[in-house]
Amino acid sequence: MTVYPALIIGSGPAGYTAALYLARAGYQPLVIAGALTPGGQLVNTTEVENFPGFPDGILGPDLMDNMRKQAEKFGAHIEYDDVVSVNLNGEIKSVTTDSGETYQARTVIVTTGSSYRHLHVPGEEEFAGRGVSYCATCDGFFFKDKPIIVVGGGDSAMEEAQFLARYGSSVTVIHRRDAFRASHIMLDRVKKNDKITLVTNTVVEEINGDDTGVTSVTVRNVLDDTTSSLDVNGLFIAVGHVPQTGFLKDALALDDDGYILVDRSSTRTSTPGVFAAGDVVDKVYRQAISAAGMGCRAALDAQAYLAELGM
């Protein structure tokens, strides 16, 4: 069986950047990019306007396609499959995919990212990218002078509401409980913003719209079970993320939320020869550019490890 110098689990900005750096260094890495959504969350994004180097913006799928092609140009190999189990102990690591293939490598970089928690209500999937968004910094600009709703009760929701207040004609924060999980300082900032309204004990029941996108949402008061309709053009869902680390089982040290722990500012995990980058590590920034930067660091950390092995 071929033993690759480096194997990357996942794709997206972190995975493809790591692959590019390792390929240019001559290591010909194997990338197991995923079967359904290779390229990560950006393949479900329309216009990306905050990635450096594209003054006119670029479609998310096009950006990921360009990154993949660039990595392949220098010798990266791409397999479109999902990793279901790993054995990361010892000098030779092995990963097994959903199709039953097993691959071996001396270093492994995990870049499987995280996924947005969904509301799982009618209309959410239908209007994703057409009014329903999970990233204020990505899509807030498109709702200038339009009514916006943010769903969530934590610091992330408050941060998104503050950011979106720069653009929207109004911002309504909807939370299912009577108290917010957000820190006092974040909540105080939101309460002082005249453009933001807080609505508690309320849940979104359905997202409504037409060919132009989202036009309203149906909400329900959980105390008296009454429903009403709110006019809105932008619905931002900020109810948390789920790191894609289930396949690791106990192979790496994770934090309480399931994110991979790394050694200080490096990308080194709890297992020698295994590195991690992107949203599977980063629960704070979650941006394409920061994931790409971390992918670069992971590749350089892996190169240093391989150099110690004399490769």
UniProtKB/TrEMBL annotation:
Gene3D superfamilies per UniProt: FAD/NAD(P)-binding domain
Top-level EC class as recorded in UniProt: oxidoreductase
Cofactor(s) the protein requires to work: FAD
UniProt feature coiled coil, ranges: none
InterPro entries: FAD/NAD-bd_sf, FAD/NAD-binding_dom, Ferredoxin-NADP_redctase_2, Pyr_nucl-diS_OxRdtase_2_AS, Thioredox_Rdtase
Pfam families, per the entry: Pyr_redox_2 (PF07992)
SUPFAM superfamilies (alphabetical): FAD/NAD(P)-binding domain (SSF51905)
Domain FAD/NAD(P)-binding as annotated: residue spans: 7-295
Catalytic activity: [thioredoxin]-dithiol + NADP(+) = [thioredoxin]-disulfide + NADPH + H(+)
Cofactor binding description: Binds 1 FAD per subunit.
Domain of life (superkingdom): Bacteria
Record flagged with keyword Disulfide bond: yes
Keyword annotations: Disulfide bond, FAD, Flavoprotein, NADP, Oxidoreductase, Redox-active center
Record keyword Lipid biosynthesis present: no
EC number(s) per entry: 1.8.1.9
One MF term in the entry's GO annotations: thioredoxin-disulfide reductase (NADPH) activity
PROSITE patterns according to UniProt: PYRIDINE_REDOX_2
NCBIfam families reported for this sequence: TRX_reduct (TIGR01292)
Subunit organization: Homodimer.
Protein family membership: Belongs to the class-II pyridine nucleotide-disulfide oxidoreductase family.
Protein's UniProt name: Thioredoxin reductase
Protein species of origin: Alloscardovia venturai
Source lineage: Bacteria, Bacillati, Actinomycetota, Actinomycetes, Bifidobacteriales
